[in-house]
Structures are given as structure tokens and as C-alpha cells.
Amino acid sequence: MSIWINDDSKVLIQGITGRQGTFHGVRMSRYNTKVVGGVTPGKGGQTVDLEGLEVPVFNSMSEAISETGADVSVIYVPAKFAAGAIVDAAESFQSAGGGLIVCITEGIPTLDMVRAVAIVESCPDVRLIGPNCPGIISPGEEGGCKVGIMPAFIHEKGRIGIVSKSGTLTYEAVAQTMSVNEGQTTCVGIGGDPVNGTGFIDCLSAFEGDPETAAVVMIGEIGGSAEEEAAEWVAANMTKPVVGFVAGSTAPPGKRMGHAGAIISGGKGTAAEKFAAFEEAGIYVARDPSEIGKVLVRALVDAGLRES
Amino acid sequence: MNIHEYQAKAMFRESGIKVQDGVHCTNVEEALSAYDSLGSAVVAVKSQIHAGGRGKGTLFDPASGEEVMQGGVKIAFSRDEVGEYASNISGNLLVTKQTGPEGKIVSNMYVESGCSIEHEYYLAVLVDRDSKSVLFMASTEGGMDIEEVAEKTPEAIHKIWADPMNGISEEDASGLASSLGLSGDSSGEMVEMLVSLYELFIERDCSMIEINPLVKTEDGSMVALDAKVSFDDNADFRHPWREELRDVSEEEEVEIRAHELGLSYVKLDGNIGCLVNGAGLAMASMDVIKLYGGEPANFLDIGGGATKESITAAFEIILEDSSVEGILVNIFGGIIRCDMVARSVIEASEEVGLDVPLVVRFSGTNHAEGKAVLDGSGMAVHTTSTLSEGARKIVELIGGNN
Fold this sequence. Notes:
The structure holds two protein chains of two kinds. Helices cover 34% and strands 23% of the residues of chain A. By secondary structure, chain A is an alpha/beta fold. Chain B has three domains: 21-113, Dna Ligase, domain 1; 117-238, 2-Layer Sandwich (D-amino Acid Aminotransferase, Chain A, domain 1); 253-397, Succinyl-CoA synthetase domains (Rossmann fold, 3-Layer(aba) Sandwich). In chain B, the strands form five sheets. In chain B, strands 9, 10, 11, 12, 13 and 14 form a six-stranded antiparallel sheet that branches. A four-stranded antiparallel sheet of chain B has the order 1-8-2-5, covered by helices on one side. In chain B, strands 4-3-6-7 form a four-stranded antiparallel sheet, covered by helices on one side. In chain B, α2 (28-38) packs antiparallel against α3 (79-89) and α10 crosses α11 (338-352). At the A-B interface, α4 and α5 of A face α4, α9 and α13 of B.
């Protein structure tokens, strides 16, 4: 089992005819993800060759969904058009019964996201992950379902759920679980932008409800208060062990650290506050990401889920 | 991107937000003629730098380091005082609690007509991450640091949120005005100002507008006495006019250069240079260096689309910093292949003449190939497979953690 996607998910690629769209489409398909088509306005009727798999291109999401029965869409559209692509996907999925949108695009104007997220939130059967994220992956027996840009080969099917604001740090967390012989149910990159779709609590709540997930690794970073809110939620609702790390203990205040949302402003959003909130909530804290594996083992042993 | 107060006020004026008359000046003569043209007996002579805390800052002579004047914003009651203050400000170093001890040279001033103040307020417009909408935040404690107000008297802060589709409602706007104790014409002016600010915020893709203080004058007008505006860089593509407002002297030259190469770089105070792919991993690398007794010299994310050229440039940028005594390269290969990074590292080291210890940690795509390339190069480089080992090694090599 997994959250939000599985081996049967039918995936559309918005921006499939672009360099990024085709490049990652090939890799998603190679991992046995069911890529059923793509959307590029004005290029409907063409096909794209994903190294052996010919998939159709449509002009709009509503057409693509009704022709393919897709329930997932991944967006590789350039930043200036990405919010429009999210809105198109949200409205089309809502009238077709619902779906998951994963927006990989980095650098979308914040006010575009304010409007796009408001529209997504008015569509009760639609979920948005991202933007500015590596995507979501659920490893299966042979390949699995990969909706994004992460290197698939580092993953393996297992019982750990991972949620993270960062890209490569998510891969680090995956490698850490593998280093202690634990695989993953689903890994979700929620992105580091100030305004985004799915947050930590959505993921934690889904992992809590997923019978296959035994424990969760949560990776936060400086800026905002999502980690503190997640910690509160964990303390009140989570029965499964959670391991946490927060990046940015050494970040100076007032400086944006790469991600648009990673900034300590007005003395708020520091890693120290977030670590403290984690500890108070009973989250198993790793101060060094290379220790996540070790800390995870401790959490699993404490929960009676592993011998040593 | 930030702009100066005088630029923000020109924008306010255009949007119908009330400000006092004022003139942008770059020297004492201009300040004096500004005073003559304004025709106001009392004027404010204001240092223009992007950092806040100007009023409570201190000016120093950059050559001698001697203190010249307390306060970077001065009220002048005569032409002579304008001359005196302008000459104390112009070309001197202003240190405020936001500039850090190195301060900022003041090259721009703003001379503005005075006004009779009845009360000072605080007003800010920003994107609220929690509610995912535009937030207006106001307080009756104008002129004060908002963080201090939030801490000591949170009940003095009032908030309203704009609807992402429909903007702010008149009801919410007048509610905010009345919670500040405004009534009659002042309340009407406040509502108009809120609407204009929202339009400006959206049209120009701002990330923050802060007015501290916003004042009610003795005749009941609502006037923005200060103006701080910053823009969302992600929206640069649809606002070409921003280039003209950019003051590059306010930005770190090396950070601009890095940005042009697709790198994200922030200079820090330590001695271990870092070169990493991914913002989260770059922060984590700094944290782990610190955890094992070292001090990171920089944040550097080479991004997902790094090339041989950008990696070479990243190396150059790290080595330009004379405090760097060692370098940690930390790559988790995804789209980026570790062997490509290895070749770039070798080439860059030869090109720039690397003379400090180098530790490289590879994981992910083609990590073994990357390590083989480095091992076969004959270069003095230490390779590790985890971030922990890498950080410990570089700290040990530069003789830290003693």
C-alpha cells in the first residue's frame, strides 16, 4: 500500500513536449509508471515517444482526462505558465471525479500560487503537491509509481513513509532508511515555497491511516511555522513513530537560503524552535541527516517493530 | 528585491496613497535646493539604504571610523540644519541593527516636508503562509519595532485577510480602521489606502509593503511617513521596469554573479567552503559542519541544472573568499551525475589552482564512477560516502575541533 498513488495510477504529463517533460516522462515510464498521455496547448493530436512508448498529446486537461481516464497529473510547465496549468488540472479533475496534481516547476510567482491554491482548495476532490518539489514516489515490486524527478533506483518497497520540504535531502533520507534495511511506502516532497498545496499534516495524516506505513521520516527546514504545527498534530494524533530533521540551524537571519520559503524573518522560523517543537511532541530527532537511519532504528525498536 | 523609500513613495504617489512632498538627493547642494523648493519650514533629512532601523542608527566616517552623528533620519528646522545633517549623512557609513557592524555607505538621501502628527500607526501588507492569502497587519503602536509589539502587546496588532479572488472587502477594511480607533474622514482615508495598497501589491507582485509609521495628521489625514517595499523575484519576468529601480550597490556583488550562473550563494563567516546540490542538502551540510566543530563559509546550491561551467564558477566563488581554508563538496546525484561533477571538480581545481584541502562526498547517480574518476586523477582529494564522514574529515583536515 501507499498514499495517494499506486501501481494502477494513470499519469498525465503537463508540458510533455518540452525538454523536461519528455526527459522525465521517459524515466517515469521506465520505472513502470503508467504514463497515459500529456498536455501541451496547441499540440493536441501529436504523439510523444517515451523511448518505446508512444503517448498521445492533448490540448487541454479536460480532454486528456476524458480520453485516458487519468487520475494523476505531473506539471513540468515553465514558471510563468505553471499556475495556469495547475488551475486547468484542478478544474478538470474536479469535474471528472477528482485527482492528484504534482507540480515540479520552480520559481512560480507567489501571488500566482495564492490564486491557484485558492482554486485547488475549492475543488474538494483534488490534491496538489508542490510546487518546487521533487514529486511523489511509491516503490512497488518491479519499479513502481514515480511522479516526479527523483532518482528511482535509490528506493525500495518497504514500510517507511517520508515527507520533506527539500529535494536532495529527501534522497538522503531515503538512502538512510536503506542503510538500515528499511524500504519506503511513499516519499512525498512537498516543496520549499511559501505558498504550496499539500503540507506536512496532510502527509502525516495519510501515513497514519495507511496500514502499510509503520513509521514516518519528516524533513523540515527554516522559515514559516509548518514544522511546529506538524509537531503539535503528531503529539495529538499520531500513533506511529516519527523521526525528524530540520535543515538550516546555521542559516543567518534575513537571508533566503535557496528555497523561496527558507528564510528566518523577524526572528521567527528558526531551526532551534522547530527542533524544540519536535522534541516536545515526542518526535525522534536526528541532528545530523546521516544519523536518520540510526534514529529510525531506535524509533522502530521502541515501538516493538524491530528487534535491533 | 528591495527598493529605497524615495522610490517606494513615488510608487505610492502614483497609486493615490498619501505621502508628503519630497525630493531625492545625492549630495549636500541638492539637499539644500530640495529644502528651498519644498517650502516647508520643517523637513526630514533621511538616509536611503535598504536596511531598517535608520532612525536609531549611527553614522561613521568610513575613512577614519570616527562617529559623525547619531541617527540616520533627522528633523531639520532650518536651512543650516539641512546642510549640516546632509553633510553628516552623505557618503558616510550608516550602521543600524539590520546592517550588521559593517554598515552601509549612504549615497542617496530623501528630503521630505514635515507634518504635524497626531498619532503614529504601523501597517504592513504581506503574503501569509498559513492562510495562503494576502494579510494586512496594523497596530496603534507606530514607529516601534513590530516584533517587539508582537511580543509585548500582541493585542495591539490587528489583522485582516484579502480574498484571493475578490480582494479585501469594505467591511473588513473599515473594521480594521475602527480597531485602530479611526473614525470619520480618517477612517474613510484609511479604507481607501488599504484598497490602493492591495491593488499596488497585486499589480507589482510585491512580497511585502511596510509603512512604519503611518500617521494621522492633526487635520485627520492618513499619511505614509515611511515606505518599505520589496518584490517577489519569481515575478521579475513580467515587470521589466524593476531593472531601473535596482540599486546594485545594495546587493552583494558575488551573490548577483552567482545568481546569473544559476547558483544560489550566501556568504557566511566561517572557513569551510561548501558546494552542494539542493537547497535543503546545502543547509544540512552547513549544519553538520558546525555540528562537528567547524564553521561553514557559505551556503551554495549548484541547482539541478548544473554544468561543468557553473561548477567551475562555483569553485571560483568559494575560493575568492580569503577566509576559506578547506572545501566540502556534497553531491547526492539524481539528474546530476557524480562522475560529471568529479570531472568538473578536477578541471576547476586545475583552473583556479586549488591550494586548500578538499573533501568530496558522493552518493546517488554514478557515485562509484565519480569516486573512481577522483581517485584516478592523482589529485589530493579525500572521498567519503556519507555527509557525516565528509564533514568530520574536512573539520579534521583544517585543524578545527581542537
